[in-house]
Design goal:
The protein is built from four helices and no strands. By secondary structure, the chain is mainly alpha-helical.
Length: 142
Amino acid sequence: MSNLQRIAVIALAMCAVVYGWYFLKIFQFSVAGPLDMDGVRPLMLKMAALLVALIVIVPILFSIAFRNKVNRDDPADERDWLIWTRTGSKTIHILYAGVIITLGLVLFEFQGIVIAHVLLGTLALTDITRLILMLIDYRRGV
């Protein structure tokens, strides 16, 4: 398993856990009553801080744990960069669709909290899909 493949597995797990936790909490809040930005803002800030912390801390810990192997035994090759580029170009369409849907919501004057969650859901779906496609490409040996 290449180092970039390991990072993709770790990133997929982190994204699934953090986004899953956030949207589960939002679902629980919405069942209890209508959502308002004052009630959701602390949860959204926790989610954003957790994602940023994991995105910064985990790669640092990964590079420390595998410092003897990273960039020596298994440097990133053309296949790694091809996979990262291909999956990004495939999933950009999800992001475009989410932005267009969001613009439609703005035109029909939906609440800001709905618009924020559609954008966040689009980002989460794009990220998770990209990482899954990456792991599929690694498995196929593309």
